[in-house]
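User: Please write out a complete single-protein record containing the residue sequence and its fold in token form, without commentary.

AI:
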Amino acid sequence: MEVSAAERIRTWIAEHGSKCVSTPEFLNGLIDELNRHALQILRSVINIRTLHPEVGAITYQWYDKDTNMALPMHLILRQQKFEFGKSRVFMNIVRRTVVETDAYSNSPFYEVRFGMSRVSTRLPAPEDMPQYSIYSDLNAIGATGYYARELQFTDGERNVITFASTKPDGFDDEDLRLLDEVAMLIAPYIEIFAQRLLMQTLLEIYLGEKTGQEVLQGRIQRGDIRKLDSVIWFSDLRDFTKLTAEEAGGVVESLNQYFEAVAEPIREHGGEILKFIGDAILAIFPVQVDARSGAEAALRAAYDAGDRLAELNARRASSGAAALQHGIGLHTGVVKYGNIGSRDRLDFTVIGNAVNLASRIEGLCGASGEAILLSAELARSLPGYTRLVGAFQVKGVAGETQAFAPTARPD
């Protein structure tokens, strides 16, 4: 007895779905199977809304190698490409502002997510059908049929999958019934992949990229500590108490502006932000190669943070807001990195004398009039780039502590 296309695809999903490790791999395998049954898929998109302060959605766009209809890069925070022989999948982290535009609210994605279970049409779309801009875009690359369907997740969230075909007359009724069944069958798999990605994304937001990966890999036991050679960064705003009194309701926005200006350079130069502490930032730059490379990365980040802060202050001045000033203390040493806390509340952080000294060094910025200060240990890794500011008595450290200011940004 001949096995139907629907039965063969059901079998493929059951046998191969759980073996796939990601949405791109699953989507590519699914479309390969659909095309074996002459659906002639040209393009497919999965659109998943996500819990993220900056991200509106995650999209997976499948194309064959000869087709290119990617999202404009200014709409994308991050993109990753997956190659599969004759096809490819782009994973796009899409800006939240995209889903607040008229283009999104006047699209099949919006219609399916907020009401209709399915949108389908031949292309070009008949005149009595809604004329979404995506239809003309797809028609221009040779598509003859379009299909969009909800992917219903167990939490009630309605996400979307679409297919575009090059079959001479688009999708026929049998194709539509098959795609309806496929959308229902694959929703649990896509949800599992989405939950994995969401967990990874949230851990990276709240813990940092490297620390988030540590937790995902199972380093979750209290007292799970390892030693890490790194450059420690401690920075905070000057006159924060005064700023709080003067700005009152606007202080949170000022803090967010400051953190954004400083956080980007830290990440760009390989640092990991571990904590925002009030108006302060604790970060580390793990020493990957040698002491000099780690020191140079941290100092470049400090210079770039100063430049970003100057740009921010120029924008603030135009609106009558006060300038923000900060101090940065940099030190190098071995820290203890891992989980500490109570049985039911853990924190992934760094502790040790090196962390304390970085904080003390930063505390000298105000009295010395320097925006960036380095410890003697770190300055030794940067010959020709620092000058001695002075020797100071700092709390918790026997004897005097030398502090150095940078004289130039490392190349």
In short: The chain has two domains: 5-207, 219-406. The mean pLDDT is 85. The first helix runs from residue 5 to 16.
